[in-house]
User: Fold these one by one.
Assistant:
Number 1:
Amino acid sequence: MNSQPGREVLRARSRLREHPRYRWLVLVTVAGGLMMAILSSSIVNIALPTITAEFGSSITTMTWVVTIFMITQATLMPVWGRAGDLYGHKRIFITGLLIFSATSILCTVAWNPYSLIVGRALQAVGASALSPMALAFVFEAFPPRDRAQALGVMGGVMGAAPVIGLTGGGLLVEAFGWRSVFFIYIPLCAVIVPAALFVLRESEKQERTGFDVLGGALLSTGLFSGLMGLNEGDNWGWSDGRTLACFALMAALLASFVWWENRVARPMLDLTLLRIRSLATANIAGFFSSGAMFGSLVLLPYFFQAVLGESSSATGFEIAPLALMFVLVAPIGGRLTARIGPRKTASAGLVIAATGFFLLATQLSADVSKLRIAMAIVVMGIGLGMTMAPLTTAAVHDAPADKRGIASSLPNMSRFIGGSFAIAIFGSFLSSRVTSHMAAAGVPAGSITNGASSGGGGVAGDNFLVNQALALSFRDVFFFAISFIAISLVVVQFIPRLKHEA
């Protein structure tokens, strides 16, 4: 009698998997995990000032709450992707969810900045498993004719999540305090884990092939070192010994990784994947286009708060049109990819995105019309949203089935690393332009420190010359961001026709 409920569950699961729309239920399940992983990388941004004040910490220390999450997630994605190929995508997806849920509790009860930073690093360990497994499930569940549309939906989720994090995070902090931005994942995981256990079917796995521990360690620590140098270079100084040591260590470890992977019998990352032209070109293009996007999502809040004097919650809503366009346009990009191919679809999206960046840059001033900024952000969102599905499709489509987990990890890994590069480069460029424009206005550059950092108070909120110098500096950076879009557009032209197109 005790086995009767178990048999009923098995029958229900069997009927579900035979349903013609089963694959869309798979998409909803894994998209929930993907949304949660990406949301966690942005929602904390809005809570940082409150956390800093409560802990009495410095801003420099608290930025590690964001930086450690991005670095850990980027470096561990390929490790989890390979683990999914070896041990099964369902097993790794659920493991990631459980780690994420448990470490969210640690973040919720953090008692000082360092415990929160450690909690965020551990939280990223779980989050980094979710994105590559979600993409792998979509490729397994959807036939080629429907795959681009499904990836378009995933692109909408990936694009909307960061801005939803900014807007929702502001509301949560105001209503329940900063700990709520971590606690919210516990009930979400309580829903997604049972759904994953019931809905998802395990992929074929190769447990006897072993796992390349040394390769994973070399790649992770090499990328970590480089991203550490990029994120801290502006604070330490780009010629500082610590910065140079980070880059030297990155070069040595990544060179060692390539040497090892070419010799080990069962590598973590089969470097022959990089010979697949569609995979290599799509990931390079995604690196630069996502760099422009992540850099913008970091800079726009600073512009709204430091120049226009907006509150944190209002800033999130100012950027909301970008999220809306991702949700609406990414599925359209998926359908266009299925009809005309990834090269043409991505090219059109990048041209539109470049137009949006140009329109935004030309509007930035101390007395700018918010309506005009909103219109420019809409154009940016349309263009960037249209590029998500074609680049992801091209990056994974031609990969062998037994390496699809690691191939699926590469697009998001490229995007996170591209975002880290862009944030560091854009931040350094902004600093130099602020110094130049402040000197031209005859105002000491040090006078903007308090106003810029506080989001609208201090000198920056009262002095039109300072505001205008800041606005011109942001304008220069957004013009510079167009170069990232241009590089991506050039690389996209080398994406070949995919197998189903030929």
Number 2:
Amino acid sequence: MGIMNLGYVILEMQDPAKWSKFAQDILGFGEADSFGEIGTKYLRMDNAPFRYMVRKGNKDRFLAGGYEISSKSDFENQIELFEGSGIDVYRGTKAEADCRAVEAFVSVKDPSGNTVEIFYGRAPDKSFLPGHGIRKFITGAMGLGHMVLPAPENETTISFYEDLMGFGVSDDLTLPAFAPEMPEQRIYFMHSDNPRHHTLGLYNFPNPTGVIHLMAEMNSMDEVGHCLDRVKAAGLHIFASLGRHANDEMISFYFFAPGGIGFEVGYDGKQIENWDIYEPTKSVIGDIWGHEYDFPVVG
């Protein structure tokens, strides 16, 4: 597999400075030096140049995830796979690559319309220590965390990531439908070439923000608890209380970040050291305990 991890996320916000302040005040991220894109805030979690790129725009939404690929040759092979399957590939310019602190990148659309970027050659690491006494985020070779994307074109989107990008299945979770006339919920969890249980989840319903949730994993339960206190003090809506998942066994809670972006903060996620002998699971429950859901009523 050439895809190593989720290297960066790109968001669009009407007020990038507000999102940057939230990320520092609540999550313990740090603001990075600019990589040249005017009006954009770059946010750090670890020694990577940045993990979140927050652009200024007319909407609050998720734009893209950038996956790190292991080498230039694997990068070119991935492009050939896309083009051989009739997928339109946008090759980023040198200036655009510089704004991402990478050697080169391309972007494509998956069958559900999500923008996928792949890159190689990340800029050299620089030392970074998170705020709020957080010792570290669980990142490094496992990337910034995971994300769950809307994938209403479910089967073709799964095939895109499995057959063209080489992701493997970790767990296929099905949950009851919201209403009798609706299909059951499905989240298809997928891993890349690192021990994290899942780097990507695909949810079979759309979402107006372009993302179901993003996840940052902390180093201790106390770090998660202190973050939960900061979220409560800031008045941000918690839509899932503290709980432990059944598939990756992570203890976490969920809340809405500015712009309505779903965000999970967790600890103790399962790691798989040898994917060759791993048996994918089929879950029918999301949680071992906790995670009481409280979604706001709209309209």
